[in-house]
Amino acid sequence: MTANKYSVLNTRVHNVDGYAKVTGRATYTFDVKLPGMLYGKILRSPHPHARIISIDPTEALKLPGVKAVVTGKDTLGVKQGIWRRYPELCDEQILTIEKVRYIGEPVAAVAAITEEIAEQALDLIDVLYEVLPFVDDPMEAIKKEAPMIHEGVERNVNVTRHIEWGDVEEAFEEAEYVREDWFKLGGQAHMCMETRATVASYTSDKKLTVYTSTQSPYYHQALLAGVLGLRESDIRVIAHYVGGGFGGKFELDASQFCASVLSMKLSKPVKIVFTREEDFIATKRRTPMFYYVRTGVKKDGTFCAREARVFTNGGAYTGMGATALYLTGFFHSFPYKWKAYRYDGYRVYTNSLPSSSMRGFGAPQAMFCSEQQIDWIAADLGLDMIEIRRKNAHTTGYEVPGQATIGSCGLGQCLDRIEEWIKARGTLPKNRAIGISAAGFMTGGIFNWFDSPYSFSSAVVTINYDGVVELHVGAQDIGQGSNTTLAMICAEALGVKLENIKVHSGDTDHCPADLGAWGSRQTLMAGNAVKMAAEDAKKQLLEFASAKFGYNIIYDLDIKDNWVHNVARPERGMHYADLVKEALRGKDGQRIIGRGHYTPHRKGMISPAYSYMVQAVEAEIDAETGKLSIIHCTTAHDCGQPINTLGLIGQLEGAASMAVGYGCLENMPVEDGKVMNPNLVDYKIIRAPNMPECEIIEIDTFEPEGPYGAKEAGEGLTNPTAAALGNAIFHATGLRMKQAPIMPEMIVNAFKEKKKEGGTP
Amino acid sequence: MEKQLLRFNVNDQEYELFINPKTLLVEALRDHLGFAGTKRGCDTASCGVCTVMVNGMAVKGCSVLAVQVNGMNITTVEGLEKDGKLDPVQAAFLDEGAYQCGFCTSGMIMSARAFLNETPAPKDAMEIRRGIEGNLCRCTGYNSIVRAIDAVAKGKYREGA
Amino acid sequence: MIHDFTYLRPGNVKEALAMLAQHRDGAKIICGGQSLLIIMRQGLVVTEYLIDIKGLDELNTLTYEPRAGLKIGATTTHRTIEKSLLIKEKYPVLAAMEEKLASIQVRNWGTIGGNLAHADAAGDPAPVLIALNAAVTIASSAGVRSVPLEEFYPGLFETVLSPDELVTEVLVPPPPAHTATVYQKFNLLESDQGIVAVAVSLSVGDKGVCRDARVVLGNAAPIPMRVKNTERLLIGSKLNEEIFAKAGDTAAEEADPVADIHASEDYRRHLIAALTKRMTKEAWEQACQA
Q1: Residue that is last in its domain, among C133, C150, C172
Q2: What pTM, to 2 d.p., does this model score?
Q3: What residues contact residue A427 under an 8 Å CB cut-off, 6+ apart?
């Protein structure tokens, strides 16, 4: 590891909001209480598919303490969605008017003086449904005779995506070995510790304040304006602390919508907090998929052609599902050079909870199929699992034809280091094996399907008389530590110590617009904006310093560790805070303000940069019961320049815990449109005793697009684990597990199958 | 329904409440006394974010009727800091970055504190892991939390250390 | 949401029994409430009166006498049992079972009496206690009776308690010589309830032959289930790998498991076979050394 040349970057620091969090002083939406606040509850459809004939709230309104009942008919009835550029994909009314399309869909909302009364009122709302035939399997929904879920959407296919380069047929001809496999990928729940929560407060001066658990205050400000008929700037969204997001909290949800509608009706604050059950059944999930993969290679392992056909279970509404459909096909080619590649994706509506975006965004599903099949091909051909990857790995500058240009790429080094690590592990006991998976992921999605007119990220740096820096960003901290990461970048760029930086985020009244915490974008995009703002402020300060010091013009001035100095003679200088005082006086009492922004231009269609990793999972399989024990998880990781050291470790370990869940714990069966385990007893989240030790091997690269060479860390890390686990099982037992999550019963059944086929169990 | 008188000590302070007996301990603490550090996160007493100490024992505030702690000493996360000085567990969490979104953190710190009070010298990492087994965390993957607890157990935060 | 109730707090067992006698079906007992409060919050249990016996120190006892054996008062917490040196010495399987029950928070407040009275077939204590040949003492204002724990459960989530009765203690006979009792549950996460569970108690007699066997399955039937055919298979033989495997198969056959989202019926039987095989072997090896 090279010595750290930076003062602040890549050092272990306390998170800037750490003190509040460890003392219980952090106020989440869950904690917000306003004077005169009412409590809201949502009435949800018990049917997967039905027409709403009538909704009668009369009895509910009679219940003492009930203040209002609203239905879709009390709203503008806007069909909204996050893909604002494409109205045909804005298909969700939230409080639906004509039809319900999934069990749990909101049909009415109540506001009452206590939560208990609001809940009692739900039972008194009389809804008349005309139950319709439903379909919850995408492979059934796509048939001609299936019920049509959205008017005019034939075969329930609402999005298709196609990615292709090279001549696939020709490349398959050239291949000397071809393998095809089918896979089934499950959904997954975000399971944020804080459920969806909103306090909406509308006042009769037509201003709406919304406290909400969100990944993007700006998106929610704009989306609410669209559905409520308010001016964007008259809506203030506040999210000081957010209890987790993981991709589930940047679309409009029923807590925000219903609380706002109720509040507007009553001009009183209304609070809606989802129960854990509501959070499971009626929020958008990771997209379940069916994958068909056909791959052709040369006998020496050179990749020739790959063809993939994917059907995704879109659930009842689109959400971000179109992006997941695209990205799964894009990342299914990662991180390798394919002579020819073809992907066809079909997103199918079904009468079940909508599928949208969850950390990894379609890539974990893609890697489960691709990385396992590659190991099987290697085994079929007697090739080494590292070598086959090395042969075809992305390299710096590689052009994914028609799709993307790869910037920095440390994949080769990742492979080398993991190869070393595996060798050092030596021989493993019986029933235990190591499986690997490579992956590459985007560092900030370039898509502006939200149709925002603003820069993707903006930042303002304001320096006070005492040298404290007020850093205003729109980037949202949801636990990933963006406040701290951005403060570190600001401190490094300005040349001051971290404790000088005060971060302001999570309030649309006081912070610039930012697209928010999704698509692994904030370190690169908001980081670039912050760096630009800090450098702007520094430049202004150094203009004063230059005039003050009166050095020969050839000399450079800089600020480092609060010391403004001559670069050639660093002992000559002054304290930063003293310079600030003089600069302020020199500017007629005006504080130094630096501005920065970032929007990717001419960086392709997907992302300005890509992170890379190779992960090795060591697992033990009890062949008799099928039980898996994950012993160890080691990742060689290229995120360019690490910024927040503790944050990076936390992201690696946290991503691993979520991805292990996807690989072998978080089974989420949906039967007849019903989520069968909407609680934390039956839906298995990993706990401390089952969590493997994790190790990170940082690979040194520099990404020119990123601030100080930084790339994302945290979402890409969810990509490889399920695949690596599958490969561990393969190497330990010879079983090819084609369904995620891999449950012990499946392993036992696979052994039985194998025995029947005559193979050694 | 007859309201019940509840007298209890929370964070070294005596309180008296007159409450519906179905009030859960977490509701008494959050809604009646304003100690919002303790959170709620599920309907099945599974997640542990509501963990507080009752007479030094870690319990889930969502699964205890407030009236049952009459006359007892409750400690919430707000009660750990003494005279402006963080509890070693809190300091260790800061040093190890043993939190991310922070929503589980109050309950996690209470479980960690109770565990260390009972087991000041855990024999290995697995014993620590079992000590926080009742607390879910979706962000950290637990390992940083285990490191923080281990640092306290190893004496890093002892007076004069 | 919990429905309103009238809260009663008896000062001693006698008062509690008088309250039960008065209110009968109109009253429910709460002790630790670790199971009860969850179902009350879901509105599945509605009661006019709630009698809180958590504070009854009379029943917070744990004693052992060489002749009578172990006596655990009903309001004794799981944590007390888990940490008891006496239990670790005399009935290590009980401590081991408690260590993996739910979570520390639940064990700190939840009680053995409450757990047994809740009658969850997936609960950990019942199969182990049945393997140990435990009995429960049941009191009412009319008197006291004793019921072997294996007769305590007539059906799913049912006990033999009348509305005016209260479990006051659990009695476990002194550990017989040359006997070992073991317990294991199968789950994905360490302290979850078992998808299935097996408790086995084996006694070695003269000439190294199995003198007695008690095999109890958890979550494999509507109630904790003694599999008597399996026991008969074991008694009278010198146990070996073949018999362990056969015991597993027999237990799997005898069981009456359900299918749910966690496991099919077939897989439950498969697990019962595997676990029973392993636990009979483990119990046998320990008993031979005891």
Answers
A1: C172
A2: 0.97
A3: none
B71 with B112, same domain?
no
Per-residue pLDDT of chain B (161 residues; tens, 9 = 90+): 899 999 999 999 999 999 999 999 999 999 999 999 999 999 999 999 999 999 999 999 999 999 999 999 999 999 999 999 999 999 999 999 999 999 999 999 999 999 999 999 999 999 999 999 999 999 999 999 999 999 999 999 998 76
Share of chain A above pLDDT 70, in %: 99
Backbone CA torsion sign across A685, A689, A695, A696: positive
B152 touches chain A (CB under 8 A): no
Amino acid A761: pLDDT = 44
Instruction: Name subunits touching C (3+ CB pairs < 8 A).
Output: A, B
- The answer to whether A327 contacts chain B (CB < 8 Å) is no
Distance (Å) from the C-alpha of residue B21 to the closest C-alpha of chain C?
A: 6
Strand order in the sheet with A610-621: A432-442, A610-621, A628-638, A693-698
Smallest CA–CA distance, residue C89 to chain A, in Å, is 26
* Domain spans, chain A: 18-25+456-598, 32-132+192-245+249-281, 359-446+608-756
CATH number of the structural domain spanning residue C42: 3.30.43.10
Provide the shortest C-alpha distance from residue A676 to chain C (in Å).
7
| ipTM at complex level | 0.98
pLDDT of residue B141: 98
Q: Does domain A18-25+456-598 have CATH number 3.90.960.10?
A: no
**Nearest by CB to A748, which of C261, C270, C275?**
C270
Q: What is the tens place of the pLDDT at every residue in C155-202?
A: 999 999 999 999 999 999 999 999 999 999 999 999 999 999 999 999
* Cα B12 → chain centroid: 15
Q: Which of residues 90-129 of B touch C (CB under 8 A)?
A: 111, 114-115
| B129 interfacial to chain A (CB closer than 8 Å) | yes
What does residue A42 show for φ and ψ, rounded to 5 degrees? -115, 130
Choose the mutation target among B18, B65, B123, B149 for the interface with C, i.e. most C CBs under 10 Å. Answer: B65
The SS3 call for residue C52 is strand
Residues of C in Cβ contact (< 8 Å) with B20: 4
- Per-position DSSP letters for A390-444, written without gaps between them: HHHB--TT-EETTTEE--S--HHHHHHHHHHHHHHH-PPPTTEEEEEEEEEEESS
A359-446+608-756 placed in CATH 3.30.365.10: yes
Q: List the CATH code of the domain at A32-132+192-245+249-281.
A: 3.90.1170.50
Asked if B155 reaches chain C (Cβ–Cβ under 8 Å), the answer is: no
Q: Which residue has the tokens 């007479």?
A: B55
